[in-house]
Amino acid sequence: MTGFLLMGFSDNHELQILQALLFLVTYLLGSAGNFIIITIITLDPQLQSPMYYFLKHLSILDLSSLSVTVPQYVESSLARSGYISYGQCMLQVFFFTALASSEMAMLTVMSYDCYVAICLPLHYEVIMGPRKCTWAVAAVWLSGSMSGTLYTVSIHSIRFCGDKIIHQFFCDVSQLLKLSCSNDHFVIIGMIDFLSVITFACFIGIIISYVHIYSTVLRMPSAESRSKVFSTCLPHLFVVSLFLSTGFCAYLNPTSGSPSTLEFLFSVFYAVIPPTLNPLIYSLRNETIKSVVRKLLFNIKFDV
After folding, report:
1. In this structure, are residues 235 and 281 in contact, taking their beta carbons and an 8 Å threshold?
2. What domain of life is recorded for the organism (predicted)?
Protein backbone atom coordinates (compact mmCIF):
# COMPACT_ATOMS: atom_id res chain seq x y z
CA MET A 1 0.00 0.00 0.00
CA THR A 2 1.54 3.30 -1.11
CA GLY A 3 -0.70 5.38 1.15
CA PHE A 4 -2.10 5.06 4.65
CA LEU A 5 -5.21 3.69 6.30
CA LEU A 6 -7.08 6.03 8.66
CA MET A 7 -8.76 3.91 11.32
CA GLY A 8 -10.17 6.66 13.53
CA PHE A 9 -11.74 5.66 16.82
CA SER A 10 -12.59 2.08 15.94
CA ASP A 11 -12.14 -0.51 13.20
CA ASN A 12 -15.84 -1.44 13.54
CA HIS A 13 -17.58 -0.21 10.40
CA GLU A 14 -20.87 0.68 12.11
CA LEU A 15 -19.01 2.83 14.65
CA GLN A 16 -17.02 4.42 11.84
CA ILE A 17 -20.25 5.39 10.05
CA LEU A 18 -21.67 6.92 13.24
CA GLN A 19 -18.41 8.75 13.87
CA ALA A 20 -18.34 10.04 10.28
CA LEU A 21 -21.89 11.39 10.61
CA LEU A 22 -21.02 13.18 13.87
CA PHE A 23 -17.97 14.68 12.19
CA LEU A 24 -20.10 15.76 9.24
CA VAL A 25 -22.63 17.55 11.47
CA THR A 26 -19.82 19.22 13.41
CA TYR A 27 -18.14 20.30 10.19
CA LEU A 28 -21.34 21.81 8.78
CA LEU A 29 -22.02 23.72 12.01
CA GLY A 30 -18.45 24.97 12.30
CA SER A 31 -18.27 25.95 8.64
CA ALA A 32 -21.58 27.80 8.81
CA GLY A 33 -20.57 29.70 11.96
CA ASN A 34 -17.20 30.76 10.60
CA PHE A 35 -18.69 31.70 7.22
CA ILE A 36 -21.26 33.90 8.96
CA ILE A 37 -18.51 35.65 10.96
CA ILE A 38 -16.46 36.24 7.79
CA THR A 39 -19.49 37.53 5.88
CA ILE A 40 -20.83 39.98 8.45
CA ILE A 41 -17.38 41.43 9.20
CA THR A 42 -16.71 41.88 5.49
CA LEU A 43 -20.05 43.50 4.68
CA ASP A 44 -20.95 45.52 7.77
CA PRO A 45 -19.21 48.92 8.07
CA GLN A 46 -19.70 48.79 11.86
CA LEU A 47 -17.18 45.93 12.05
CA GLN A 48 -14.16 47.44 10.31
CA SER A 49 -11.89 47.97 13.32
CA PRO A 50 -8.59 46.02 13.69
CA MET A 51 -10.17 43.67 16.26
CA TYR A 52 -12.79 42.45 13.79
CA TYR A 53 -10.25 42.41 10.96
CA PHE A 54 -8.18 39.94 12.97
CA LEU A 55 -11.30 38.00 13.97
CA LYS A 56 -12.22 37.58 10.30
CA HIS A 57 -8.83 36.07 9.54
CA LEU A 58 -9.13 33.81 12.59
CA SER A 59 -12.43 32.53 11.17
CA ILE A 60 -10.76 31.97 7.79
CA LEU A 61 -8.09 29.91 9.54
CA ASP A 62 -10.73 27.92 11.46
CA LEU A 63 -12.80 27.25 8.34
CA SER A 64 -9.72 26.16 6.42
CA SER A 65 -8.49 23.96 9.27
CA LEU A 66 -11.79 22.10 9.44
CA SER A 67 -11.85 21.67 5.67
CA VAL A 68 -8.37 20.16 5.58
CA THR A 69 -9.09 17.16 7.82
CA VAL A 70 -12.80 16.45 8.33
CA PRO A 71 -14.31 16.12 4.79
CA GLN A 72 -11.67 13.66 3.60
CA TYR A 73 -12.18 11.43 6.63
CA VAL A 74 -15.97 11.57 6.32
CA GLU A 75 -15.79 10.65 2.63
CA SER A 76 -13.38 7.75 3.15
CA SER A 77 -15.37 6.40 6.12
CA LEU A 78 -18.70 6.49 4.30
CA ALA A 79 -17.03 4.80 1.31
CA ARG A 80 -15.86 2.02 3.66
CA SER A 81 -12.28 2.69 2.66
CA GLY A 82 -10.33 4.81 5.15
CA TYR A 83 -7.55 5.01 2.57
CA ILE A 84 -5.55 8.20 2.07
CA SER A 85 -2.77 8.46 -0.48
CA TYR A 86 0.76 9.51 0.43
CA GLY A 87 0.35 12.79 -1.45
CA GLN A 88 -2.93 13.58 0.32
CA CYS A 89 -1.32 12.78 3.67
CA MET A 90 1.59 15.14 3.03
CA LEU A 91 -0.83 17.87 1.99
CA GLN A 92 -2.75 17.37 5.22
CA VAL A 93 0.47 17.61 7.23
CA PHE A 94 1.41 20.84 5.46
CA PHE A 95 -1.94 22.61 5.64
CA PHE A 96 -2.89 21.46 9.14
CA THR A 97 0.44 22.42 10.72
CA ALA A 98 0.56 25.68 8.74
CA LEU A 99 -2.97 26.65 9.80
CA ALA A 100 -2.41 25.63 13.43
CA SER A 101 0.79 27.70 13.59
CA SER A 102 -0.96 30.64 11.92
CA GLU A 103 -3.81 30.42 14.41
CA MET A 104 -1.39 30.56 17.32
CA ALA A 105 0.26 33.63 15.80
CA MET A 106 -3.13 35.23 15.12
CA LEU A 107 -4.25 34.73 18.71
CA THR A 108 -1.02 36.40 19.84
CA VAL A 109 -1.65 39.37 17.56
CA MET A 110 -5.24 39.63 18.83
CA SER A 111 -4.07 39.67 22.43
CA TYR A 112 -1.67 42.50 21.59
CA ASP A 113 -4.50 44.39 19.89
CA CYS A 114 -6.57 44.07 23.09
CA TYR A 115 -3.62 45.27 25.13
CA VAL A 116 -3.10 48.39 22.99
CA ALA A 117 -6.84 49.19 22.87
CA ILE A 118 -7.23 49.02 26.66
CA CYS A 119 -3.85 50.02 28.07
CA LEU A 120 -2.73 52.53 25.40
CA PRO A 121 -6.00 53.92 23.99
CA LEU A 122 -4.54 57.33 23.05
CA HIS A 123 -1.91 55.66 20.84
CA TYR A 124 -4.21 52.98 19.38
CA GLU A 125 -4.76 54.65 15.99
CA VAL A 126 -1.01 55.02 15.49
CA ILE A 127 0.07 51.59 16.73
CA MET A 128 -2.75 49.61 15.08
CA GLY A 129 -3.04 51.54 11.83
CA PRO A 130 -4.44 49.79 8.71
CA ARG A 131 -1.03 49.32 7.13
CA LYS A 132 0.43 47.76 10.28
CA CYS A 133 -2.58 45.45 10.66
CA THR A 134 -2.13 44.28 7.07
CA TRP A 135 1.55 43.57 7.70
CA ALA A 136 0.69 41.71 10.91
CA VAL A 137 -1.77 39.44 9.11
CA ALA A 138 0.73 38.85 6.30
CA ALA A 139 3.35 37.87 8.88
CA VAL A 140 0.87 35.47 10.50
CA TRP A 141 0.17 33.66 7.22
CA LEU A 142 3.85 33.64 6.25
CA SER A 143 4.96 32.18 9.60
CA GLY A 144 2.34 29.45 9.29
CA SER A 145 3.47 28.59 5.77
CA MET A 146 7.07 28.31 6.93
CA SER A 147 6.08 26.01 9.81
CA GLY A 148 4.01 23.82 7.49
CA THR A 149 6.88 23.59 5.01
CA LEU A 150 9.40 22.62 7.70
CA TYR A 151 7.08 19.93 9.08
CA THR A 152 6.31 18.51 5.63
CA VAL A 153 9.94 18.39 4.52
CA SER A 154 10.90 16.66 7.78
CA ILE A 155 8.10 14.10 7.48
CA HIS A 156 8.95 13.51 3.81
CA SER A 157 12.47 12.46 4.84
CA ILE A 158 11.09 9.62 7.01
CA ARG A 159 10.92 6.06 5.67
CA PHE A 160 7.76 4.18 6.62
CA CYS A 161 7.53 0.41 6.99
CA GLY A 162 5.12 -2.21 8.26
CA ASP A 163 1.36 -1.74 8.38
CA LYS A 164 0.68 1.88 7.44
CA ILE A 165 -2.31 2.17 9.75
CA ILE A 166 -2.97 5.53 11.42
CA HIS A 167 -5.28 5.32 14.42
CA GLN A 168 -6.48 8.85 13.86
CA PHE A 169 -8.93 10.70 11.60
CA PHE A 170 -6.18 12.61 9.79
CA CYS A 171 -2.44 12.37 9.13
CA ASP A 172 -1.28 13.41 12.56
CA VAL A 173 2.47 13.99 12.93
CA SER A 174 2.73 12.01 16.18
CA GLN A 175 0.98 9.03 14.57
CA LEU A 176 3.25 9.16 11.52
CA LEU A 177 6.30 9.03 13.78
CA LYS A 178 5.09 5.67 15.11
CA LEU A 179 5.29 4.25 11.58
CA SER A 180 8.91 5.28 11.08
CA CYS A 181 11.35 2.41 10.58
CA SER A 182 14.52 4.48 10.77
CA ASN A 183 16.22 7.05 12.96
CA ASP A 184 15.19 9.84 10.61
CA HIS A 185 12.35 10.73 12.96
CA PHE A 186 14.82 12.53 15.23
CA VAL A 187 14.81 15.35 12.67
CA ILE A 188 11.06 15.91 13.02
CA ILE A 189 11.29 15.60 16.82
CA GLY A 190 13.86 18.38 16.79
CA MET A 191 11.54 20.42 14.56
CA ILE A 192 8.64 19.87 16.97
CA ASP A 193 10.80 20.99 19.90
CA PHE A 194 11.90 24.11 18.02
CA LEU A 195 8.37 25.13 17.08
CA SER A 196 7.17 24.28 20.60
CA VAL A 197 9.60 26.88 21.94
CA ILE A 198 8.13 29.46 19.53
CA THR A 199 4.61 28.49 20.61
CA PHE A 200 5.59 28.85 24.25
CA ALA A 201 7.00 32.31 23.50
CA CYS A 202 3.65 33.27 21.94
CA PHE A 203 1.90 31.92 25.02
CA ILE A 204 4.10 34.03 27.30
CA GLY A 205 3.33 37.08 25.15
CA ILE A 206 -0.41 36.43 25.50
CA ILE A 207 -0.12 36.01 29.27
CA ILE A 208 1.84 39.27 29.62
CA SER A 209 -0.76 41.11 27.52
CA TYR A 210 -3.62 39.87 29.67
CA VAL A 211 -1.86 40.62 32.93
CA HIS A 212 -1.59 44.24 31.80
CA ILE A 213 -5.17 44.23 30.47
CA TYR A 214 -6.78 43.00 33.68
CA SER A 215 -4.66 45.19 35.91
CA THR A 216 -5.89 48.16 33.86
CA VAL A 217 -9.50 46.99 33.85
CA LEU A 218 -9.61 46.56 37.62
CA ARG A 219 -8.58 50.19 38.02
CA MET A 220 -11.47 51.46 35.92
CA PRO A 221 -13.98 53.39 38.07
CA SER A 222 -17.00 52.61 35.89
CA ALA A 223 -18.64 49.20 36.21
CA GLU A 224 -20.12 49.64 32.72
CA SER A 225 -16.65 50.19 31.23
CA ARG A 226 -15.32 47.09 32.97
CA SER A 227 -18.25 45.05 31.70
CA LYS A 228 -17.70 46.26 28.13
CA VAL A 229 -14.01 45.38 28.23
CA PHE A 230 -14.68 41.95 29.71
CA SER A 231 -17.31 41.21 27.04
CA THR A 232 -14.72 42.00 24.38
CA CYS A 233 -11.67 40.26 25.86
CA LEU A 234 -13.10 37.25 27.68
CA PRO A 235 -14.07 35.42 24.46
CA HIS A 236 -10.53 35.81 23.18
CA LEU A 237 -9.07 34.53 26.45
CA PHE A 238 -11.41 31.54 26.40
CA VAL A 239 -10.47 30.72 22.78
CA VAL A 240 -6.76 30.95 23.62
CA SER A 241 -7.19 28.68 26.66
CA LEU A 242 -9.21 26.11 24.70
CA PHE A 243 -6.78 26.05 21.77
CA LEU A 244 -3.62 25.82 23.87
CA SER A 245 -4.88 23.35 26.46
CA THR A 246 -6.17 20.87 23.88
CA GLY A 247 -3.11 21.35 21.68
CA PHE A 248 -0.69 20.70 24.54
CA CYS A 249 -2.66 17.62 25.58
CA ALA A 250 -2.54 16.29 22.01
CA TYR A 251 1.17 16.83 21.40
CA LEU A 252 2.71 16.54 24.86
CA ASN A 253 0.82 13.36 25.71
CA PRO A 254 3.30 10.44 25.70
CA THR A 255 2.63 8.23 22.70
CA SER A 256 2.79 4.47 22.77
CA GLY A 257 2.98 1.83 20.10
CA SER A 258 -0.63 0.78 20.57
CA PRO A 259 -3.64 2.86 19.56
CA SER A 260 -5.00 5.07 22.31
CA THR A 261 -8.57 6.31 22.64
CA LEU A 262 -7.25 9.20 24.71
CA GLU A 263 -4.94 10.30 21.88
CA PHE A 264 -7.85 10.28 19.46
CA LEU A 265 -10.04 12.34 21.79
CA PHE A 266 -7.23 14.84 22.39
CA SER A 267 -6.85 15.33 18.66
CA VAL A 268 -10.60 15.85 18.23
CA PHE A 269 -10.60 18.48 20.97
CA TYR A 270 -7.58 20.11 19.37
CA ALA A 271 -8.43 19.97 15.67
CA VAL A 272 -12.24 20.03 15.55
CA ILE A 273 -13.78 21.53 18.69
CA PRO A 274 -11.97 24.92 18.85
CA PRO A 275 -12.63 26.00 15.22
CA THR A 276 -16.25 24.86 15.61
CA LEU A 277 -16.88 26.71 18.88
CA ASN A 278 -14.96 29.92 18.12
CA PRO A 279 -17.80 31.65 16.20
CA LEU A 280 -20.29 30.74 18.93
CA ILE A 281 -17.98 31.99 21.69
CA TYR A 282 -17.37 35.32 20.00
CA SER A 283 -21.00 35.89 19.02
CA LEU A 284 -22.34 35.05 22.49
CA ARG A 285 -20.05 37.46 24.36
CA ASN A 286 -19.70 40.28 21.82
CA GLU A 287 -22.66 42.66 21.85
CA THR A 288 -21.66 44.32 18.56
CA ILE A 289 -21.63 41.04 16.66
CA LYS A 290 -24.94 40.00 18.24
CA SER A 291 -26.56 43.28 17.20
CA VAL A 292 -25.27 42.92 13.62
CA VAL A 293 -26.55 39.34 13.42
CA ARG A 294 -29.96 40.41 14.76
CA LYS A 295 -30.08 43.23 12.23
CA LEU A 296 -29.17 40.81 9.44
CA LEU A 297 -31.83 38.30 10.49
CA PHE A 298 -34.44 41.06 10.80
CA ASN A 299 -33.67 42.33 7.32
CA ILE A 300 -33.90 38.86 5.85
CA LYS A 301 -37.24 38.28 7.57
CA PHE A 302 -38.49 41.71 6.46
CA ASP A 303 -37.47 41.13 2.84
CA VAL A 304 -39.24 37.76 2.79
Report:
1. yes
2. Eukaryota
**CA 96/CA 102 separation, integer angstroms:** 10
* Cα dihedral: 33, 37, 38, 43 (round 10): 130
What are 122-178's pLDDT values in tens digits? Answer: 888 889 988 999 999 999 999 999 988 988 888 887 887 767 888 788 888 877 887
Of 189-203, 237-251, 289-303, minimum mean pLDDT range: 289-303
The angle formed by the CA atoms of residues 184, 105 and 203, to the nearest 5 degrees, is 85
Distance separating alpha carbons of residues 251 and 263, to the nearest angstrom: 9
pLDDT at 54 over 90: yes
CA separation for the pair 103, 2 (Å, rounded): 32
Domains of the chain as residue ranges with CATH = 4-303 (1.20.1070.10)
SS (H, E, C) the chain: CCCEEECCCCCCHHHHHHHHHHHHHHHHHHHHHHHHHHHHHHHCHHHCCHHHHHHHHHHHHHHHHHHHHHHHHHHHHHCCCCEECHHHHHHHHHHHHHHHHHHHHHHHHHHHHHHHHHHCHHHHHHHCCHHHHHHHHHHHHHHHHHHHHHHHHHHHCCCECCCCEECCCCCCHHHHHHCECCCCHHHHHHHHHHHHHHHHHHHHHHHHHHHHHHHHHCCCCCHHHHHHHHHHHHHHHHHHHHHHHHHHHHHHCCCCCCCCHHHHHHHHHHHCHHHHHHHHHHHHHCHHHHHHHHHHHHHHHHHC
Read off the pLDDT of residues 109-118 as tens digits, 9 standing for 90 and up. Answer: 998 998 998 8
